[in-house]
Amino acid sequence: MTEIGISILSSDLLNLEKEIKSIEKSKADYIHIDIMDGHFVPNLTFGPDIVAQVKRMTKIPLDVHLMIDNPARYIETFASVGADILTVHYEACNQLDEVLSLIRRHGCKPGLAIKPTTSVESIKKYLDKVSLVLQMTVEPGFGGQAFIEATLENLQTLDLHRTHHHLSYMIEVDGGINKVTGKKCVNAGADVLAVGSYYINALNREKIIQELKN
Ligand SMILES: O=C(CO)[C@@H](O)[C@H](O)COP(=O)(O)O
């Protein structure tokens, strides 16, 4: 079954505990936390303290997406505050092999993210070292953007590569996901849908999670 991660980027941050309880009630599989540094992406969001607070509030696994330059500097910090999956960007790392093994050494599942225009070819040599590949389906930085259809081709390539090489990484998509785009992604090979504004704005959050899962 498809798994759902809820991105807290667009949630009501002054009522974060209430939001986390709502995510638990709607039976999401992950809480997706976007860490932005104002360099790698043109926006600023959370630091490790927020991740630590969310961890204290819930048992839902935390899928922490580092949209930061040179993420090696912060792997130990985010691992120590409770990240379960720790995802770094291919475009932001110099020594990716080392960063991925650092993530594993600190007890997290390593994820590798790519921007919409990055090719799967460029990350193929790392795919046997990751637990998850995160295909950005919008330009990273902001919630509420429109899904980029051209990213579906990368999902098909990732899915074919996984089967062909007997690999087991999960394929996650993030950005502009709703009932229509989510279905397209799942049909193209995605296993995990990271959802932000579609969930936050829904009148019946439990219902839309069930629809997305099915
Ligand atoms: O990482 C990002 C944006 O950079 C996402 O996680 C967004 O938070 C998803 O929000 P929607 O596109 O679903 O509104």
UniProtKB/TrEMBL annotation:
- Which annotated residues bind substrate? S7, H65, G141, F142, G143, G144, D174, G175, G176, G196, S197
Keywords noted in UniProt:
Carbohydrate metabolism, Cobalt, Isomerase, Manganese, Metal-binding, Zinc
Q: Which reaction does it catalyse?
A: D-ribulose 5-phosphate = D-xylulose 5-phosphate
InterPro entries in the record, alphabetically? Aldolase_TIM, Ribul_P_3_epim, Ribul_P_3_epim-like, RibuloseP-bd_barrel
Gene3D superfamilies this protein is in?
Answer: Aldolase class I
Q: What residues make up the catalytic site?
A: D34 (proton acceptor), D174 (proton donor)
Q: What name does this protein carry?
A: Ribulose-phosphate 3-epimerase
Function in brief: Catalyzes the reversible epimerization of D-ribulose 5-phosphate to D-xylulose 5-phosphate.
A GO BP term here is: pentose-phosphate shunt
Family per similarity comment:
Belongs to the ribulose-phosphate 3-epimerase family.
Q: Pathway listed for it?
A: Carbohydrate degradation
* HAMAP family, sorted: RPE (MF_02227)
**EC number, as in UniProt:** 5.1.3.1
Give the species.
Marinilactibacillus psychrotolerans
PANTHER family in the cross-refs: RIBULOSE-5-PHOSPHATE-3-EPIMERASE
List the taxonomic lineage. Bacteria, Bacillati, Bacillota, Bacilli, Lactobacillales
Q: Which residues bind a divalent metal cation?
A: H32, D34, H65, D174
Q: Which GO terms describe its cellular component?
A: cytoplasm
Name what cofactor the protein needs. Co(2+); Zn(2+); Mn(2+); a divalent metal cation
